[in-house]
């Protein structure tokens, strides 16, 4: 259940086999990774590295002054073409907690309004001295275009209905925190799967870690292939290694995690739902339905919640809910991502590199010694910003 | 009197059922006849076509030359240059320009631009409805008189069934085909690629095959009702081909075309090498085209239908765009592939793969399009205009988008190696293209 059909690819195998320059430890960087575009190309080891790092980040966040200077002198730009509160603030806090400078750019009030194209905006930001770009865009694939046309490290903070990898990381991290593992955990994702980047990224992340994932929702909000395989005599190939069940009562039975998705009220194009009332009746997560899940089951939600629609207020704030943990863990998980991409970045510095960097970033080309030089974020003596030690 | 001989080439002309190594004699821009390669004779010009294929110049029933209004994407001059570089001696261009080709004057403008460019014959289609707005019929009879060879609202469908019925009825008098881009907008629902596994994976809105098939079925029934002249543009699904097959079995005089890209590419081209290498998904905007690239099952069904003759014609749907129309997100990118210069190489690839014969490919690039639009070209029978393509079916070449003659460098084939390349193109016996560095 852990692998998609034909999913484990060459690059993944190589990355897994890449020699480790130092022993194991959270401060070891991801090898050969410059982007977090989605979790489909993550190995189990890479995700676990992120978790171990996030554990330490949580420890930092629990301190009286939750700051370390690890990324001092680095500039993280949050480029948000879509409204967002929690994801943007979460990235901002994560970067600041690591000592980085943060610049927030939103589509309104920037040159985007004057018609500047995405790639030109990114080129400008790069020339201004951006070290890492966090991008949210309404169009699927936008961060991929950015990653292809620039040499900047890019973190996808949500692209259309496609992917939201840091959300999936924090979801998996939260499950691990609750159950001590992700492997074997049964996760039910309910709702508007067709338009959900959270569902898609979780399908990759959770299954890579050995969880069993089921998609459930009204037929009009299911992806085409999910609908095709679920109907009577249906056939076809799902792009994700997951199960599909349209009936919520059947789907929820015995699961460990229930994750209702937000009904995108603002995106109700073409009456895909008869009414919100009917949705709440058929797919809302309430106490009666939670009772069908495993006795220890938890409820997660990527937020923001529409209480009374996809989730009952009783459940949203009840003892099964880990929604607030998700938010807290989101900062730690994003700190881990920024750290693993930037703190170990001596060999992947962006600003001073020309086109020749491409090859050196490949798997197995990691510069020996770079990782062992990386400062421990817990060691207050080794706080030299990575770039100054070049 | 100028006499010209094309020596020792393999002449494939489905219009004469000819496929043999022979010499072709041209006098004053017309085919005079054929002589044995060893025959003696005095000629003003002689071209050695040994090991090359000689065929009637290709005829493209569907391309976009963008003039007037979108001269930054293509002009009649650059587009017709691209055409002859791809072996096309006649190109029929779509009227979705700015303004759209709605009147006899508009038609005359494009015809004059084509003559001025002096490369391929450029034959415009006029709109079916004024401004392609789908509300009222254009003056089709007047445009036909001015030289429009067909009518289409291409770029979008004639979505209003009443308009389509009226247009087909009207075609009984001007006798030109009504060419419909079949896509029910409510079913396509803003989709930017085929709906299915890849669109689910990429989180992109898809248009299901039914968006096309429902309108193909509608138009076939309207053609049955009216007896009008229907030509289906760029069909792209297996079931569309089935619908055409059934209509033809019923004896309806409808015709259909398919593009080289729908015969050779699938929706997987948008993903890039993700499946085999785990490289990031490419969201390759160069493979964004409408109708969208479909599954391999559809592609194979289209090749089979073409081979059977169910689909009559191969047409490029050459759709040039500026680089910035493609260097953006997939959602924002324009639909279309620049296809005139890669058509032959793509199709020879199909022949090499054993999917179809070279004779059949040439037939569907020459004889059949001329039958479909009733054009006096597409064959090298004695007396016909000497519109000729000479190509090397074995020459391998690497596509370099930057070096295309078309202004539109938007091809997903950039960097790919193709086999089959045009060496020389003649229109009325005059060399309009000769490949440099032979």
Q: Could you characterize the architecture of this molecule?
A:
The complex is a heterodimer of chains A (390) and B (438). With 390 residues, chain A is an alpha/beta fold. Chain A folds into two domains: 2-13 and 20-160 and 328-350, Rossmann fold, CATH 3.40.50.1370; 165-319, Aspartate/ornithine carbamoyltransferase (Rossmann fold), CATH 3.40.50. Chain A has 15 helices and ten strands. Chain A has a five-stranded parallel sheet, with helices on both faces. A five-stranded parallel sheet of chain A has the order 8-7-6-9-10. In chain B, 31% of the residues lie in helices and 22% in strands. Chain B has 15 helices and 18 strands. Chain B has helices at 76-85, 104-117, 140-146, 161-174, 185-188, 197-202, 209-226, 238-249, 260-264, 268-271, 274-277, 296-308, 343-352, 358-365, 367-372, and strands at 3-13, 18-27, 30-35, 45-48, 53-56, 58-63, 88-93, 121-124, 151-152, 178-180, 193-194, 206-207, 230-232, 255-258, 313-314, 388-398, 417-427, 430-434. In chain B, a hairpin with a 2-residue loop joins strand 17 (417-427) and strand 18 (430-434). The longest helix of chain B has 18 residues, at 209-226. The radius of gyration of chain B is 21 Å and the shape is globular. The model of chain B has no long low-confidence stretch (mean pLDDT 96). The chains are: A alpha/beta (390), B alpha/beta (438). The A-B interface holds A 6, 9-12, 35, 37-38, 40-41, 117-119, 137-142, 144-145, 147-149, 159-163, 197, 200, 223-226, 236-240, 270 and B 189, 195-204, 206, 208, 275-283, 324, 327-332.
């Amino acid at each position: 259940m852990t692998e998609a059909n034909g999913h484990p690819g060459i690059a993944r195998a190589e990355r897994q086999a890449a020699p480790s320059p130092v022993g194991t430890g959270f401060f070891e960087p991801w090898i050969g990774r410059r982007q977090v575009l989605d979790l489909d190309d993550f190995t189990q080891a890479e995700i676990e590295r992120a978790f171990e790092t996030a554990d330490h980040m949580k420890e930092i966040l629990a301190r009286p002054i939750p700051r370390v200077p690890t990324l001092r002198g680095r500039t993280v730009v949050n480029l948000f073409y879509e409204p967002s509160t929690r994801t943007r603030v979460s990235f901002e806090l994560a970067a600041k907690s690591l000592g980085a400078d943060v610049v927030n750019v939103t589509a309104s009030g920037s040159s985007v309004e004057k018609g500047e194209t995405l790639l030109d905006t990114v080129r400008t930001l790069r020339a201004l001295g951006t070290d890492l770009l966090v991008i949210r865009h309404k169009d699927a694939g936008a961060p991929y275009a950015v990653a292809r046309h620039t040499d900047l490290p890019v973190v996808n903070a949500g692209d259309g209905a496609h992917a939201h990898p840091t959300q999936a990381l924090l979801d998996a991290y939260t499950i691990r925190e609750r159950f001590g593992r992700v492997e074997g955990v049964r996760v039910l994702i309910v709702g508007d799967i067709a338009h959900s980047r959270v569902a898609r990224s979780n399908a990759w992340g959770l299954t890579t870690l050995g969880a069993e994932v089921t998609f459930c929702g009204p037929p009009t909000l299911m992806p085409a292939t999910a609908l095709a395989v679920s109907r009577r005599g249906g056939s076809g190939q799902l792009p994700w290694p997951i199960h599909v069940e349209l009936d919520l009562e059947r789907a929820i039975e015995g699961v460990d995690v229930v994750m209702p998705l937000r009904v995108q009220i603002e995106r109700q194009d073409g009456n895909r739902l008869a009414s919100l009332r009917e949705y709440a009746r058929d797919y809302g997560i309430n106490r009666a339905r939670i009772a069908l899940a495993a006795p220890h089951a938890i409820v997660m939600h990527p937020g923001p919640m529409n209480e009374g629609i996809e989730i009952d207020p009783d459940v949203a704030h009840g003892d099964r809910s880990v929604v607030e943990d998700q938010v807290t863990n989101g900062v730690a998980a994003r700190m881990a991502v920024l750290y693993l991409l930037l703190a170990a970045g001596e060999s992947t510095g962006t600003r001073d590199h020309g086109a020749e960097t491409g090859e050196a970033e490949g798997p197995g080309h990691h510069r020996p010694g770079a990782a062992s030089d990386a400062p421990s974020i817990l060691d207050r003596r080794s706080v030299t910003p990575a770039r100054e030690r070049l | 009197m100028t006499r010209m001989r094309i020596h020792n080439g393999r002449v494939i002309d489905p219009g004469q059922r000819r496929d043999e190594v022979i010499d072709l004699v041209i006098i004053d821009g017309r085919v005079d006849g054929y002589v044995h390669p060893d025959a003696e004779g005095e000629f003003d010009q002689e071209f050695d076509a040994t090991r090359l294929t000689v065929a009637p110049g290709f005829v493209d029933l569907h391309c976009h030359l963008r003039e007037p209004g979108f001269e930054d994407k293509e002009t009649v001059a650059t587009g017709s240059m691209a055409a002859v570089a791809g072996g096309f001696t006649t190109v029929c261009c779509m009227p979705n320009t700015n303004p759209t080709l709605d009147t006899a004057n508009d038609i005359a403008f494009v015809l004059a631009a084509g003559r001025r460019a002096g490369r391929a014959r450029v034959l415009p289609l006029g709109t079916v409805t004024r401004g392609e707005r789908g509300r009222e019929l254009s003056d089709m009879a007047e445009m036909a008189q001015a030289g429009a060879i067909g009518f289409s609202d291409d770029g979008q469908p004639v979505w209003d069934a009443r308009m389509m019925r009226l247009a087909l009825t009207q075609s009984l008098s001007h006798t030109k085909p009504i060419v419909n881009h079949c896509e029910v907008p409510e079913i396509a629902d803003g989709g930017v690629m085929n709906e299915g596994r890849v669109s689910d994976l990429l989180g992109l809105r898809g248009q299901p095959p039914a968006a096309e098939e429902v309108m193909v079925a509608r138009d076939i029934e309207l053609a049955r009702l009216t007896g009008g002249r229907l030509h289906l543009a760029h069909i792209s699904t297996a079931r569309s081909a089935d619908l055409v097959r059934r209509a033809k079995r019923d004896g309806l005089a409808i015709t259909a075309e398919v593009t080289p890209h729908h015969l050779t590419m699938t929706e997987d081209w948008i993903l890039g090498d993700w499946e085999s290498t785990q490289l990031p998904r490419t969201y390759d905007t160069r493979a964004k085209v409408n109708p969208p690239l479909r599954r391999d099952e559809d592609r194979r069904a289209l090749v089979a239908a073409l081979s059977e003759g169910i689909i009559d014609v191969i047409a490029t749907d050459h759709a040039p765009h500026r680089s910035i129309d493609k260097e953006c997100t997939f959602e924002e990118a324009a639909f279309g592939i620049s296809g005139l210069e890669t058509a032959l190489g793509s199709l020879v690839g199909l022949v090499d793969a054993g999917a179809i014969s070279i004779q059949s490919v040439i037939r569907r690039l020459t004889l059949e399009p001329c039958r479909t639009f009733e054009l006096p070209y597409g064959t090298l029978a004695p007396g016909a205009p000497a519109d000729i393509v000479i190509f090397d079916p074995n020459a391998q070449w690497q596509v370099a988008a930057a070096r295309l003659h078309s202004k539109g460098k938007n091809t997903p084939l950039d960097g790919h190696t193709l086999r089959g390349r045009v060496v020389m193109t003649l229109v009325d016996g005059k060399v309009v293209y000769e490949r440099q560095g032979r």
